[in-house]
Amino acid sequence: MNKQIIAIRSSFNRKLNGKLQNVRLRKFFLYHSIQTEKS
After folding, report:
1. What pTM, to 2 d.p., does this model score?
2. What is the pLDDT at residue 37?
3. Residues 6+ away with beta carbon under 8 Å from 27
C-alpha cells in the first residue's frame, strides 16, 4: 500500500516538475525574445 502511494506521488511530482520546467523555459524564451526586440 505505502509503496503504491509513494510510486503515485513520485510520478505526480515528476509530471509537476516537467510542467514547471516547461513554464520556466517558456518564460525564458519570452524574456529573451523581448530583449532581442528592444536592442
Report:
1. 0.55
2. 80
3. none
Task: Please give the Cα distance from 7 to 21 (Å, whole number).
Answer: 21
Can you point out the beta strands (E) in 1-39?
A: none
Q: What totals of helices (H) and strands (E) does the chain contain, helices first?
A: 1, 0
CA 28/CA 6 separation, integer angstroms:
32
The pLDDT tens digits for 7-39 are 999 999 999 999 999 999 999 999 989 888 876
Of the candidates 10, 30, 12, 11, which has an alpha carbon nearest to the alpha carbon of residue 22? 30
